[in-house]
Amino acid sequence: MSTAQLARGERLNEEAQAELAAARDQVQQNTDRLHDVSTRMTDITERRVNGTTASNDAAEYAALQGDATLLQKMLVAAKQAEALAGEKIHGAFVFWTDAKAKHDREQAEARFKALQEQAKQIEAVFIQSLGAVGRAGQAIGISTMGSAYPKSNAIRQVFDLNMIPTEEA
């Protein structure tokens, strides 16, 4: 389950990244267009101030004002989309982080269970071997298991002192 959630978190992030890229492109396009309209309006204003206006300047200026108003609204909408995509990226990251933690926990639990099972199998072989050592000891007059097979320091540390063995042990 956690692998599917992890993949979903990655997919959500990729989708949010794509949305963010598209929103940023739209912000840039609208900004560029608004700059172009503003430049054209400034040119018309300069011609009017210099007394060199063309006959269609007034109509073009009015049209450019309408364009500028619309582009401003489009720019605001694009910036809102950009902010929303940023929030989605954050949400996807939180989702992925949670899924990753669950995935890692499940992996650790699976490894623990596998190692437990391996230790049980080794223990069964060890107990059989100890039984054989004990019976062989009885055959030669050794009456106790402790005499036939004294506990090693490593076994004593694990079971008597409840210590986790080191890798070298």
Architecture blueprint of SSEs:
Blueprint: H1 2-50, H2 57-139, H3 145-148, H4 153-160
What does this structure look like?
By secondary structure, the chain is mostly helical. The mean pLDDT is 92. It is 85% helix and 0% strand. 7% of the residues are buried. It is rod-shaped and about 125 Å long.
Q: What would a concise description of this structure say?
A:
This protein has 169 residues and is an all-alpha fold.
Question: Which terms would index this structure?
Answer:
169 residues; rod-shaped; mainly alpha
What does the main sheet amount to? Answer: none
* Low-confidence runs of at least 5 consecutive residues: none
Strand fraction equals under 5%
The percent range for helix content is over 70%
| Tally of DSSP β-strands | 0
- Count of the domains: 1
Series of H and E elements: HHHH
Mean pLDDT: 92
Q: Given the helix and strand composition, which structural class is it?
A: mainly alpha
Number of helices: 4
Radius of gyration: 38 Å
Distance N to C terminus: 36 Å
Shape: rod-shaped
